[in-house]
């Protein structure tokens, strides 16, 4: 009896600190944002209950839909850019090759760097006067292609997406390489003996064998790209003319520049459900569990 | 996605029948990939040593002479000393506490059977799905109500809360794999529950502990959103936040921006080259369930 009670106390004491911090600083904010989303509040004076007004206003704001559209572009660029490039390079690296370790080290490097450093660096690269890209184009005699990459709303989203892809290719590269190394050598040898070309072996043996990993990478890519905020905040802050606005940025600017805490909370709620529903749908469609 | 890729592969496959892909082609593609990956960083580091005029005229070459003015002006105007100190303090404290509390929780979740075990575990893991940005506004309000905006310890709380899920996930799955008789023989020897944790489970979990320490450290070191919303006192800013506002103020001083970035990169790149294996392991493990 005594021992059992001690055990219960020990378990409670052991789990409680983590649970309390997690509840207060991760779960409570989510619940609070539900509450605030029904209020009109400038953050200082008294709150006023407005029912669904914030949500109605939100759904009528074309800028909100614009930011959601851009968010979807980020998701698409990540899935269609990062995964195929990473897989292609991983397949090339998955053989007896000199300098494998160096390619791996360089490949993963951007993943370790802070998003802020990457954003500022790429802003300099895209700079219209002295940026690397325009300078390269000028050197190659292609001056007419030089653009104000981040300052021109026709190009800004594309420029941002290139950086997004660049940042995380290495992560998927390493994930794919690890999976490829688990494909048993004998299977590939056998296929080779049967006269299958490398292309055929890759398509009909290697890729099916790492299919599970590819699915995981796609899910990861989607949930990761929904988190895009820092990168765009630093590079363009959603501009020019909202051409690179994403939902989190829209929320940030509506809340802190216009002091609309109730409205901002309503956007938070939408982001929360949008992310969960998207991840849930994708995991279901791809036949995996969400948790 | 598959279609472009497929096409590429098909062309390659068709080619191969006639001329099997030669190693040089593979190396060529890999080298291009490596250049695209590394050159932006190298370009920035090299140009941080050039004077403004040289940057404008000779962007691709090595600097004619090393100019350190950029570094001096970046260090002074961006307040890098303070930023580094703040980042190191917050990073170490948050990482230490997250791993300590997380290890403790994981021990009970992995080595004990009790009624709410599965529920508590799932509840923690759910945290990995919470989009952090959805919490920025309520987090700001919460911290303001708690009087915790702009203090040296502000960021530690959300950092712990949001990294506990992945920490608990990695540690629990590692600790679950230990055989049951470890505790049994320890209990025979009269060890208490906490003693078993401290002198048996914790030392045995060393590889997983290394993974979560590195993971937490890198996440905390690079974190920007919470810092942006919760801190605006320049003396309390972390490195990413300070760099972002520095770049915002000195938009035309490219040299100083590059020097500031280079200085902030040195520790993380050194750390990466030193502990590459562990870092890659940690970040991919973190990603696969993050």
UniProtKB/TrEMBL annotation, chain A:
UniProtKB keywords: Cell membrane, Membrane, Transmembrane, Transmembrane helix, Transport
Transmembrane segments: 9-31, 72-93, 105-125, 155-180, 201-226, 261-282
Localization: Cell membrane
A Gene Ontology biological process term: transmembrane transport
ABC transmembrane type-1 domain: residues covered: 68-282
Top-level taxon of the source organism: Bacteria
Repeat keyword on record: no
GO terms under cellular component: plasma membrane
Pfam families (UniProt xref): BPD_transp_1
Ion transport recorded as keyword: no
Membrane-topology descriptor: Multi-pass membrane protein
CDD domains for this protein: TM_PBP2 (cd06261)
PROSITE patterns on file: ABC_TM1
InterPro entries referenced in this protein's UniProt entry, alphabetically: ABC_transporter_permease, MetI-like, MetI-like_sf
Sections of the chain in a coiled coil: none
Family to which this protein belongs: Belongs to the binding-protein-dependent transport system permease family.
Annotated PANTHER family: ABC TRANSPORTER PERMEASE PROTEIN, INNER MEMBRANE ABC TRANSPORTER PERMEASE PROTEIN YCJO
The protein's name in its UniProt record: Carbohydrate ABC transporter membrane protein 1, CUT1 family
From TrEMBL, chain B:
InterPro entries for this protein: MetI-like, MetI-like_sf
Broad class of where this protein is predominantly found: membrane
Highest taxon above the source species: Bacteria
Entry keyword set: Cell membrane, Membrane, Transmembrane, Transmembrane helix, Transport
Subcellular location: Cell membrane
Mode of membrane association: Multi-pass membrane protein
Domain ABC transmembrane type-1: from-to ranges: 84-275
Pfam family, one: BPD_transp_1
GO biological process: transmembrane transport
SUPFAM superfamilies: MetI-like (SSF161098)
Gene3D superfamilies hit by this protein: MetI-like
Membrane-traversing stretches: 25-46, 87-109, 121-143, 155-175, 196-219, 254-275
GO CC aspect terms: plasma membrane
Protein family: Belongs to the binding-protein-dependent transport system permease family.
Protein's name according to its UniProt entry: Carbohydrate ABC transporter membrane protein 2, CUT1 family
Organism name: Gracilibacillus ureilyticus
């Amino acid at each position: 009896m005594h021992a059992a009670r001690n055990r219960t106390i020990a378990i409670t004491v052991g789990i409680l600190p983590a649970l309390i911090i997690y509840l207060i600083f991760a779960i409570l904010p989510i619940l609070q944002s539900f509450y605030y989303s029904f209020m009109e509040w400038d953050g200082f004076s008294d709150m006023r209950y407005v029912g669904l007004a914030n949500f109605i206003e939100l759904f009528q704001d074309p800028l909100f839909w614009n930011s959601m559209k851009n968010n979807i572009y980020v998701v698409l660029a990540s899935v269609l850019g990062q995964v195929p490039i990473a897989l292609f390079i991983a397949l090339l690296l998955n053989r007896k090759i000199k300098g494998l370790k160096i390619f791996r080290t360089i490949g993963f490097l951007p993943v370790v760097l802070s998003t802020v450093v990457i954003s500022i660096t790429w802003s300099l690269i895209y700079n219209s006067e002295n940026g690397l890209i325009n300078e390269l184009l000028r050197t190659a005699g292609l001056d007419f292609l030089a653009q104000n990459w981040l300052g021109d709303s026709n190009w800004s989203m594309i420029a941002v997406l290139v950086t997004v892809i660049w940042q995380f290719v290495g992560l998927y590269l390493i994930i794919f390489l690890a999976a490829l190394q688990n494909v048993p050598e004998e299977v590939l040898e056998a296929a080779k003996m049967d006269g299958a070309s490398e292309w055929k072996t890759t398509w009909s043996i290697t890729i099916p064998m790492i299919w599970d990993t590819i699915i995981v990478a796609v899910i990861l890519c989607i949930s990761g790209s929904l988190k895009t905020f820092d990168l765009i905040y630093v590079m363009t802050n959603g501009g020019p003319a909202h051409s690179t606005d994403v939902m989190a940025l829209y929320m940030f600017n509506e809340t802190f520049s216009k002091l609309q805490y109730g409205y901002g909370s309503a956007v938070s709620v939408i982001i929360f459900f949008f992310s969960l529903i998207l991840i849930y749908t994708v995991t279901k469609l791809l036949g995996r569990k969400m948790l | 996605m598959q279609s472009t890729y497929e096409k590429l592969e098909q062309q390659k496959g068709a080619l191969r029948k006639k001329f099997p892909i030669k190693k040089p082609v593979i190396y060529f593609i890999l080298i291009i990939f490596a250049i695209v990956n590394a050159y932006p960083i190298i370009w920035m580091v090299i140009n941080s040593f050039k004077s403004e005029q040289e940057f404008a005229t000779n962007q691709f070459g090595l600097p004619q002479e090393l100019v350190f003015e950029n570094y001096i002006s970046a260090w002074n105007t961006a307040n890098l000393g303070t930023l580094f100190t703040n980042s190191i303090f917050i990073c170490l404290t948050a990482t230490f506490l997250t791993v300590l509390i997380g290890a403790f929780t994981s021990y009970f979740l992995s080595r004990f059977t009790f009624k709410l075990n599965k529920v508590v575990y799932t509840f923690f893991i759910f945290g990995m799905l919470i989009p952090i940005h959805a919490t920025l506004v309520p987090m700001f309000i919460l911290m303001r109500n708690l009087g915790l905006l702009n203090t040296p310890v502000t960021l530690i709380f959300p950092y712990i809360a949001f990294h506990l899920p992945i920490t608990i996930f990695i540690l629990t799955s590692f600790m679950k794999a230990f055989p049951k008789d470890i505790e049994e023989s320890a209990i025979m020897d009269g060890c208490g529950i906490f003693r078993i944790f401290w002198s048996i489970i914790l030392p045995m979990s060393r590889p997983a502990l290394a993974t979560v320490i590195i993971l937490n450290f890198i996440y905390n070191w690079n974190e920007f959103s919470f810092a942006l919303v919760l801190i605006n006192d320049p003396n309390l800013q972390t490195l990413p936040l300070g760099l972002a506002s520095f770049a915002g103020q000195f938009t035309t001083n490219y040299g100083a921006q590059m020097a500031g970035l280079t200085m902030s990169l040195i520790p993380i790149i050194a750390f990466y080259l030193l502990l590459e294996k562990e870092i890659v392991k940690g970040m991919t493990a973190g990603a696969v369930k993050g």
